[in-house]
Amino acid sequence: MQDARHSAELLRRRTGGVGPKGRIDGGVVKAKGTVVSQSGIKASPTASISAGSTVRLSYCEKARVVTGGNLIIDGPCLHSDLFVGGSVIIRGRLQGGNVHANGLVYVKDQIGDIQGATTKIALGYNPLDFLHLQELNAMLEDQQQKLQAHSRN
User: What is the mean predicted confidence (pLDDT) over 90-109?
Assistant: First the structure.
């Protein structure tokens, strides 16, 4: 008999989607297909979702979401980094963080806040290419620092 984790992994591979019922709190979720979280994703430096298709969350706070499809957030999106190959729908407010989208961005309530948290929206290019460029720049900077440290010794 297979344990529950193994069965869930087989299901994820077959369907390509993930649907956690509890809040994603500091976890990392990766799926080839869709991700639907009824309880959202919350504050952590490592909280992230990566999906090949649509992501739907009840809310998003201090997280990173990367999807080749659309992103739907039924509540607020606070201080998060979103890289979306399709369109973004936020049915609450967008406060702080960065949105990179190839499609449209719709925010129902408000964008930004009066406390001065920087909120940026970038449209009209493939955000997954931009994300890859950021990762390459970070690797380059790391290698340059190692080279400088090595040359001082």
Answer: 96
